[in-house]
Amino acid sequence: MAAAAAAANAATSVKKKEKSSLLVFDSEEDLSVALAKYTAELSGRFADERGAFSVVVSGGSLIKSLRKLVEGPYAESVEWGKWHVFWVDERVVPKDHPDSNYKLAYDAFLSKVPIPPGHVYAINDSLPAEGAADDYETCLKQLVKTGTVQQSAATGFPKFDLMLLGMGPDGHVASLFPGHPLLQEKERWVTFIKDSPKPPSDRITFTFPVINSSANIALVATGAGKAGVVHQVFGDEHTMSELLPVQMVALEDGELTWFADKAAASKVQDKANL
Ligand SMILES: O=C(O)[C@H](O)[C@@H](O)[C@H](O)[C@H](O)COP(=O)(O)O
């Protein structure tokens, strides 16, 4: 598809594995330029096709890598009024707390572009984890009913137009951590965790069936701390170990594109001589 193909042209190297591509950029700066272009292209396509663009973000360093999207030319050219913004996971803290993923995205991104406030779906921060997960799931069900968020014909789960996801150095995505029972959740759209190994402990998170029903996912990995995981996913050796959460990202009917800088892809490059 066009957006991923254009991003691949800008990459220094591309490696394909099963249904995903790994795009490697010389620097995080180059990566952020390509990520902005990719996101703007998808935004244009979905806004034209269906009059809305549903975008899911994570917390962490991903938000910084989105900085080029709020600069020219995209700050002016993107149809921000058609965006609907969600969080793949959120820490159960007040929205103005330094740990809040909402606050992180608001300060660096959302406050800089004219997305209608009613299109920004933050969690209800007056509820404890379980209630906040229920509330977010109810909100998604309503938005699927009205067609703001599409539904996957294959799985019945919501089909977001784009998820922009970071990944932890331990291979976690969203708040789905290695070895945790939540990795096996098959029914819920949104669930909660009270023993997150990465603080804070209480969080809500999308489940794998929702993540894997997406139309597009950009998985962004920057810095040497992510090199081991990128190698585990894209290296040519087969390990017998249990799959990391990030290896469970496998789209039913969509396109998964990894954006890595040189540091994050260093072990793959050494081995595969990209
Ligand atoms: O709330 C969170 O902790 C995030 O949503 C989390 O899933 C994040 O994306 C990864 O931990 C990667 O974070 P870094 O890129 O900062 O390592």
TrEMBL record:
This is Probable 6-phosphogluconolactonase. It catalyses: 6-phospho-D-glucono-1,5-lactone + H2O = 6-phospho-D-gluconate + H(+). GO terms for cellular component: cytoplasm. Residues 27-258 form the Glucosamine/galactosamine-6-phosphate isomerase domain. One of its GO terms (biological process) is pentose-phosphate shunt. Belongs to the glucosamine/galactosamine-6-phosphate isomerase family. 6-phosphogluconolactonase subfamily. PANTHER family: 6-PHOSPHOGLUCONOLACTONASE, 6-PHOSPHOGLUCONOLACTONASE 3, CHLOROPLASTIC. Gene3D superfamilies: 3.40.50.1360. Pfam families: Glucosamine_iso. Hydrolysis of 6-phosphogluconolactone to 6-phosphogluconate. Signal peptide: none annotated. Its EC number is 3.1.1.31. Pathway: Carbohydrate degradation; pentose phosphate pathway; D-ribulose 5-phosphate from D-glucose 6-phosphate (oxidative stage): step 2/3. GO terms for molecular function: 6-phosphogluconolactonase activity. SUPFAM superfamilies: NagB/RpiA/CoA transferase-like. Keywords: Hydrolase. InterPro entries: 6-phosphogluconolactonase_DevB, 6PGL, Glc/Gal-6P_isomerase, NagB/RpiA_transferase-like.
